[in-house]
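User: Some background: our group keeps a shared notebook of sequences we're curious about, and every so often someone picks one and asks for a predicted structure to add to the entry. Today it's my turn. The entry only has the sequence so far, pasted here. Could you supply the structure so I can complete it?
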Amino acid sequence: MRIKYLGTGAAEGFPGLFCECAACRKARDRRGKNLKMRSCTLLNDSVLIDISPDIFAQSLSFGIRMSKIKAIVCTHSHEDHLDLFSLMLRCRTGSSHLPDIPPSQNHIHVYGSSAIIGKIEHAFSSQPHADRNILIFHELKAYRPYLIEGLEFTPLPAQHIPDEECFLYCVREGKHSLLYANDTGAPTEDFFSGVERLPHPFSVVSLDCARGTLDGDGHMGIKEVRSLCGKLKEMGRITPASRIYLNHFSHMCGMIHDEFQDLIAEEGLRLTYDGLTLEVSDDGFFTRSM
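Assistant: Of course. Here's the predicted structure to add to the notebook entry:
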């Protein structure tokens, strides 16, 4: 399984677009891993988890051929994770010339809750030149496995938008599993009961930590992350071989990437950054920056 983080920041990005707090100023000065576009992750070159409003810049920065995207799996409907404008461009007549894709295969499969599907369907009403048939919708149900481009996705309940079903995902390929958990507050027993049904421990655990050192709300902070990791270890789902990454970072706690990474390093935790690529196989575990 190849996991490529295209964006690792929270809704406002890091530094915040209009923000002049000390952390944002420091991030602009130091740059590198401290600069974070909005959250979006690519699996095996063909499946996106969420579609960021920064997807155009991300595709150029990391050499992503968007024509190769076959599926988009959505966590929730917030605009920093669901860029409707980019989706409509993919469907708009004349915006994309795809000579290598036969018309019968010119589709993107979109997976998510009924709220996701409804929001995208509504976007077509203001796009008269967008072809509704380009997108094929699949409404997901919690705890049921779905085969998506050779990857098995199991949606698990997230605690994020009170009146919307939001999902975390266990993604399995062969012997290896990824827990992709953002955005969410501290998971409830519904989440843990779903984890108990899964057959394997996680090779990679990717956790929301937008709150940093602050108390969690609809996102987790380091306190909630520690509690969650402790529970997953008790359940045997995190083992000594598991890699744990904190994602979806924000300027809220006043720390930049470098400072927060120093804080968590002794616990064996790692902070994601834009362009981080993880390759997990039976031959080993590899990371690279681009």
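Suggested note for the entry: The longest strand covers residues 151-157. The two ends are 16 Å apart (CA to CA).
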